[in-house]
Amino acid sequence: MLEFLKAILFGIVEGITEWLPISSTGHMILLNEFVRLDVREEFWEMFLVVIQLGAILAVVLLFWKKLFPITRRKGKYTLDSDIMEMWYKVIVACIPAAIIGVFFDDILEKYLYNYVTVSLALIIFGIAFLFIEEKNKNRKAVITTIKDITWKTAAIIGVFQLIAAIFPGTSRSGATILGALLIGVSRTVAAEFTFFLAIPVMLGASMLKILKFGFEFTGKEAGLLATGMAVAFLVSVFVIKFLMDYIKKNDFKVFGWYRIALGALVLLYFGIIA
After folding, report:
1. Chain center to CA of 230
2. What is the 8-class DSSP label of residue 144?
3. Model pTM?
């Protein structure tokens, strides 16, 4: 029972931190220091990634009409060209990170998944959020709808997502939102496009981890994973709604300050106990 309560806690943290630009990886690594799942190391590494599938389902649920390209009109099924073009741009933005994930996942995990990298990424991108938001204070966004995102814009956002794929603690949502803001995308559109990017990225990363793990689940492990995913889904629904309402009237500075504080805390904590 205790392990399932831990899985619920991990699901809550995943659901909150996956969509806010504050690094789910950083929070999960820190939480694992205090609330460690009593499971095999191989399962934990897989759990840390695959739990994100629950968060993906929240995006699909909330944005279904903007994601599903097949519509029915007058008894006939038609393909929405705008939604299809959006998906093509999402794929373009995902290619750099996908290449890194497939070919260098083990190397990056071995050398960069540590508290120093995570802490520095939290702090550096926290400062970047403060700088970009201050720079954009009196600047009007030039891209205000998903349809306005060009192929070039999608590619640039993909480069920022690549940075997140390389350096844990950067935050995938944080990096892509920051990149989008930098090139004139509105906060709302930046957040939405980031959510859409998460679907193929998380799905691909999860499938890769499951294949490496080998589907060799015990009954307990399968239950823990299902619990974490279900909780991550439920929490994500509320967090995504909150974020979309929040950024209509507020900027991302609060998340920048939070990242800096968390990064300093992680450095201090691990530096003292190391």
Report:
1. 17
2. -
3. 0.88
